[in-house]
Amino acid sequence: SRSHGTSYPSKRARTEPSFRQTPQLCKAGPSGAAPFPRRRSAPGAGRRGCGMAPDMEPLFQAWSYFRRRKFAQCSALCSRLLERAPGEQAAWSLKTRALTEMVYVDEIEVDQEGIAEMLLDENAVAQVARPGTSLKVPGTSQGGGPSPAVRPVTQSGRPITGFVRPSTQSGRPSTMEQAIKTPRTAHTARPITSASGSYPRLGTATMLTNPDGPFINMSRLNLAKYAHKPKLAKALFEYIFHHENDIKHALDLAALATEHAQFKDWWWKVQIGKCYYRLGLYREAEKQFKSALKQQDMIDTILYLAKVYLRLDQPVTALNLFKQGLDRFPGEVALLCGIARIHEEMNNISSAAEYYKDVLKQDNTHVEAIACIGSNHFYSDQPEIALRFYRRLLQMGVYNCQLFNNLGLCCFYAQQYDMTLTSFERALSLAENEEETADVWYNLGHVAVGIGDLNLAYQCFQLTLVNNNNHAEAYNNLALLEMRKSHIEQARALLQTASSLAPHMYEPHFNFATLSEKIGDLQRSYTAAQKSEEAFPGHVDTQQLLKQLREHFAML
């Protein structure tokens, strides 16, 4: 509620459960390989704990380490084998795959766009996009989503999601100045370049996994020779792409290998598309993925192609692609989840919730779907139903700060006060960094405001700023408490700080406009009210204040 010209930000369950379901694919062994013969062990020999038999074949032991995901031991054992027999292709291939798995990141899930990629992008995007056709231009949703008065929004104007994903961790800065000012933490801003984020920098992964030097000298590698050996070429490509992060050499190898396969191997076309995507050549990547889909219908290829369309800011095309994929793969969870994410980013929350429910029909333990539906119910003023979804996550074994924070908020707004403080205490004990601690103290401040203990609320908001000095919502609420104490100058300073930290929030602008109007500073009041209207055009109190100020200016 907004009474007497003051406004608290909405109850903010902005600590979404940060579980990322990155599928770790257990890769099969070399095709056509004959099973290893069973060796007869000596008397008394055998498994001791987790160790292997002392007389086991070294290559088989390395393969066993690889299958049990003990990649460091596998790599070390392969190194000893290669010292004895430098031309051993099996050991070389196995070590390559082990080093790759140590730094492997699933390309489908990782979609982190750096500031350089955003602001130095040569792909032209329509400045005046049609409603419901753009993710980069705020305010182009189809409607049906909650207003910023109910559900907080990100810097890009999208409502916050119930699940932390790489594409939702921060907003899209519209100017370089705004991008540089944004604090660079894992929760609030993108890295300067994507190479400094999830991907290893060129050469650093080699130094980490091979203290003695690089395993493969890229400058002396004869790519044409390996391109004629398909099994070795695939392992080598993944090593160059994931471990060395040398996209150009990987692209050269993939181009030679697909030429050797007479352009009939869909796997190489997908890898070429991945290289083009990382190099920013999105249209070329689109051609490769489409060509691969014609040869072999694969879910992963559909997801890669949808990533290209989303990067080109074509969400409607991505939606159509997902729906075509559902015709060929009915009930596929990854495709349903992709549709739900796009609807959520376009502020079409009701459609997103329906698709997340479809996901749960296929997989009732899908953490992202449960978290997003729970968040949607919470912001739809249904905390009792949201509480059921978060309890379901607790029953599934999810046990972290974000979940208990959300349980505490749901218990408070569902009037189950006996569990509220207990949940927040558990959340504070499980917090892994200062940002999480700050969010819990901020929500505790809201609980204190709700029960009327303003002194406790003041202390909670102060503790929020101790843990996170860039928490704009805490600055705004502290300013309102200072206004109640008639500390006008402190309140104005806090509101100005909040406005500079979060220009996309309408509350600091509106509160500053109201405060300036009360003390007679009408020009600043009018400027701040205009910023508030730009951030939230449907705010009635802002429109009334602007109307009063315009009438006053007309009388002068």
UniProtKB/TrEMBL annotation:
Gene: Ttc8
Keyword set, alphabetical order: TPR repeat
Composition skew (Polar residues), residue ranges: 166-177
TPR repeat coordinates: 401-434, 438-471
PANTHER family: TETRATRICOPEPTIDE REPEAT PROTEIN 8
PROSITE patterns for the chain: TPR
Species for this entry: Nothoprocta ornata
Presence of keyword Membrane: no
InterPro entries assigned: BBS8 (IPR028796), TPR-like_helical_dom_sf (IPR011990), TPR_rpt (IPR019734)
Coiled coil: none
Protein name listed in UniProt: TTC8 protein
Gene Ontology annotations of biological process type: non-motile cilium assembly
GO cellular component: BBSome; ciliary basal body; non-motile cilium
Residue numbers spanned by region Disordered: 1-51, 135-196
